[in-house]
Amino acid sequence: MEDASVSIKSLDKVYLDDKGKPSFHAVKAIDLEIHDGEFMVLVGPSGCGKSTTLRMIAGLESISGGTISIGNAVVNDLSPKDRDIAMVFQNYALYPHMTLYDNMAFGLKLKKFSKAEIDERIQEASEILGLTPMLQRKPKALSGGQRQRVAVGRAIVRHPKVFLFDEPLSNLDAKMRVSTRAEISKLHKKLGSTMVYVTHDQVEAMTMGDRITVMKDGDIMQVDDPLNLYQNPANMFVAGFIGSPPMNLLHGTIESSESGITFVEESGEGEAARITLHGDVAQKAEQRIGQATVFGIRPEHCSEHPSATHSTQISAPVEIAEIMGEETYVHLQLSKHLLIARVNTESYRETTQQLNIHLNLDKAKLFDPATEQVL
């Protein structure tokens, strides 16, 4: 079977102003290997370079430096139609005057496929996507989710090496997004094709990707599988971007006393929180006595009851409580930071008084605030 990997080496994109001078460095000499048959998600905030990267893979955006290879062939100088890719956009880009069948057939007719081959490919794609009963309808008769399925079907019939998705679910409502992302994930399993998917939604990224590339300001912050990305963020940006709510990041210093190693929060309006450290996190903190350090812990590792070999307790007043059903996220007001903890709704009673919370230190992280890298 033909190799459909995508290899990106030192890929650079600089936009120029009217005078031909550099005005914006959108993508900064990134390297990325996307494996044959992999579902790779590019995720990050607006302006991070993820869509620009996707458009350069597609050939819709010129590159300022570096190489892009699909399979074993460098495609830098190939036009989009010669790259053997198919792209699905967020705005569907369907022809309103054509039936679904004709929308899906259009590209194949341009390439002079026989009617029998076109019929076969469209029937195959429409069955996979549940579109068969709708093939003679026009786009205006469909819901947003159905239109997006047609756009995906139009890509499938081309049998491309690589599928490229540019925020395809952003125009759908919340319920439709959930069902359509499940359909795209099932489609990937069925086709086994290489798929590169851009989104700003980290929930989409976590639920869909075999691996995730987190981008910021044109750079790659981390590439990893979803669980490792969540559990072992390489830096403060990934820790704060992946997860909902994100990881708590408290700025402070490390102190040593007779009682042991302690993280002391930066002082604000009230008394600074003091977190006594144990286990691996205490060993790492020993190397930073007297130094500025960021203490990171996820909300689910802050709870009413001790849940780990190494835990410590803090007490703080509740600023806000967000009841999410069985679980409640409480925002505890420390001296300078809010600490979000996940507690059981049944056992929680909303109060402005002090709440005792146990921190699972086996899951805590320390970061260097200068480099923002995990220790």
List keywords for this structure.
elongated, 34% strand, 375 residues, six-stranded mixed β-sheet, alpha+beta, five-stranded antiparallel β-sheet, Rossmann fold, 9 helices, OB fold (Dihydrolipoamide Acetyltransferase, E2P), 25% helix, 2 domains
Low-confidence stretches: none
Estimate nothing, just give the exact number of structural domains.
2
Radius of gyration: 25 Å
Count every helix, treating DSSP H or I runs of 4 or more residues as helices: 9
Distance between the termini: 43 Å
Q: Give the overall shape.
A: elongated
Which fold name is given in CATH as the topology of the largest domain?
Rossmann fold
So, CATH architecture of the largest domain? Answer: 3-Layer(aba) Sandwich
- The beta-strand count equals 20
Which structural class matches the secondary elements?
alpha+beta
Q: CATH class of the largest domain, anyone?
A: Alpha Beta
Main sheet overview: 6 strands, mixed
Helix-strand pattern: EEEHEEEHHHEHEHEEHHEEEHEEEEEEE
Strand order of the largest sheet: 6-7-8-3-9-10
The percent of residues in helical segments reads: 10-25%
